[in-house]
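Researcher: Here's the sequence for the chain we discussed earlier.
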Amino acid sequence: MDTLAVGGFVAPGFESVREAFLENLRDRGELGAAFAVVRDDEPVVDIWGGIADRAAGRPWQADTLQVIFSGTKGMVALCLLLLVDRGALELDAPVARYWPEFAARGKGHLRVCEVASHRASLPGIREPLTHEDILDDVRMAELLAQQPAETDPRAACAYHALTYGWLCGELVRRIDGRSIGRFFADEVASPLELELWIGLPEALEPRVSQLAYASGWGSRGWSAEELAGDELLDRAVNNPPLFPPEWIPWNRPRWHRAEVPGAGGIGSARALARLYSCLAAGGTLDGIRLLSPGTLERGRQTLSRRWDPLARADQAFGFGFELQTASQPLGPAPDAFGHRGAGGSTHCAWPSLRAGVSYAMNLMRDDAEADPRGQALMRAAHGALTAAARRNGDRG
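Model: Thanks. This is the structure I predict for it:
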């Protein structure tokens, strides 16, 4: 098996993207990955390479699927915006209007926009959890409804790594009746013909890539002493441990089938690039309208820009979407919005270039800033898109 072979295609003018992908495999330690760019409904980059399953020796192929971790949050944000667009959900309404039990323990004042922008002071669940517990999204929502918001002031600026998904997913269930995975499948993935799921059909399990830790994985984490001495931190990032050093729970088929809307999405870079190209174009793709440009514009306006004292990082969020910060985590486009995932994956829209971009990989890295593999690909793609726009006389 040639681990440096790059499959797929790049359009004329995008050869630098393929070269950057090859450099990732050759020089940056990439295991297996895919990268895709869709502009104006047209794929201009769709490439893949490396190893999908190291133990089995299975190569990454055109139909390989990948866990995208917090990239799932962008999918959930879109579901909420669809409900906003249809008049079923108001951004500034109290969550309890749609989910009455949520008002318990003094949370009746919390608004939908606060929950969707990681400002609800609910970054973790207080009750001790097992790995099996977090596969039950209904039970997790019940626990969040029953507990109070945290009074530690750091909680108001703390990333809701898993609780974001359970909070927003329950809002969808209370308003629409469907689970977040079913709603996304019916209202987004099916009309746009996307191979993208929150809750993978069992028959597709053989196509899922197997995750692996890079040698430096965990170097930016928290020590056992830090976790033991900080209840809020322990609840937010270690209840239960999501990336235990001795095994990767996210490789298990049961986890793939479960609806874990904060981190459990599975799909292809091709599908995510197509989805974000729809959002880059204002909510319409191939004549299919998901939502109005006005609602989408509201969804990507800044609701929170802060230093997260638990994640120890600058962050910016719209209505569920991650926005750019000074380190440009979403590539060179200043107007980018979307969401990254643990380990290095990045999925976003670049509206000024009318493009959707997605990088998915299976080697989990823990870099201090943005992952150099994805950054190299996005720099090359941005340069090629910008050059193409200039040739076409397009100011974007």
